[in-house]
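Exercise 7. Given the encoded structure of a 270-residue chain, write a plausible sequence.
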């Protein structure tokens, strides 16, 4: 079994890197893939004009693609709107915000929203995952066909990524990670940090991998703008972080890890 996924994140329309975004779109048009996942922060300020630009860009891409919201996709201005209808603009332009799914005989994806319009803590941009969200995602992945690659996606890393420039501090993140590991999830795709990384979640057999994508915006945090290409060949996962140098798109870094054998995957007590 061979699969290819494109993993983009943190485009921040309204503050996007136009050249890097054009390069990513050209790559997507030239490279066959099974699914593109955009893991949140589609916009900069959550404004209708930014969502309109994002929707137009997505409409010009080959499919299929699955896009989920991030903390920047709530209205930056207007506290009342952010509390009452934080993802209304996202849903009208892009699609459902609470959860998304993709199914094929060889791939099962469950995406859920780790962003919140507001929280009872000073930094509302940090993430949160409820027990219900984690359970619904895990149950959906447990129902996947035997041998399918199981992928979860949300905006914030559930467990802090080592050595990265900012934190996610996801409420319920570790509990969600344990539940996804118990569901034999292979990969958890996230954004938020504006940095690419691959690391094993520290539960069960440690073969559920957290994969973070960089940014295609002007909001850089020590790394060039870019996105990820994920290739699954049998039990091997290769993640390539593609970077825009200002003139070319290059493979900046590559990780290779071993997934659970497709024929012998079993549930682990995380």
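Solution.
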């Amino acid at each position: 079994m061979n699969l290819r996924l494109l993993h983009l994140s943190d485009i921040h329309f309204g503050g996007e890197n136009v050249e890097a975004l054009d390069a990513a779109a050209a790559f997507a048009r030239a490279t066959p893939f099974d699914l593109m996942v955009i893991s949140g922060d589609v916009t900069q300020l959550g404004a209708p004009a930014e969502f309109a630009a994002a929707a137009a860009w997505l409409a010009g891409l080959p499919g299929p693609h699955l896009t989920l919201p991030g903390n920047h996709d709530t209205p930056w201005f207007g506290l009342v709107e952010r509390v009452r209808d934080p993802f209304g603009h996202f849903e009208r332009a892009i699609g459902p915000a609470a959860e998304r799914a993709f199914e094929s005989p060889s791939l099962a994806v469950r995406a859920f929203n780790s962003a919140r319009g507001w929280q009872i803590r000073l930094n509302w941009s940090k993430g949160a995952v409820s027990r219900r969200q984690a359970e619904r995602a895990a149950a959906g992945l447990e129902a996947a066909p035997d041998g399918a690659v199981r992928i979860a996606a949300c905006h914030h890393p559930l467990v802090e990524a080592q050595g990265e420039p900012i934190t996610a501090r996801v409420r319920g993140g570790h509990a969600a990670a344990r539940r996804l590991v118990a569901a034999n999830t292979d990969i958890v795709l996230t954004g938020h940090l504006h940095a690419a990384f691959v690391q094993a979640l520290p539960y069960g057999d440690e073969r559920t991998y957290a994969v973070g994508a960089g940014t295609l915006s002007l909001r850089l945090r020590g790394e060039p703008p870019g996105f990820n290409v994920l290739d699954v060949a049998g039990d091997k996962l290769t993640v390539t972080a593609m970077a825009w140098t200002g003139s070319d798109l290059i493979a900046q870094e590559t990780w290779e890890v071993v997934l659970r054998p497709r024929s012998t995957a079993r549930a682990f007590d995380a």
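Remark. The chain has six helices and twelve strands. Students should compare their own answers with the one above.
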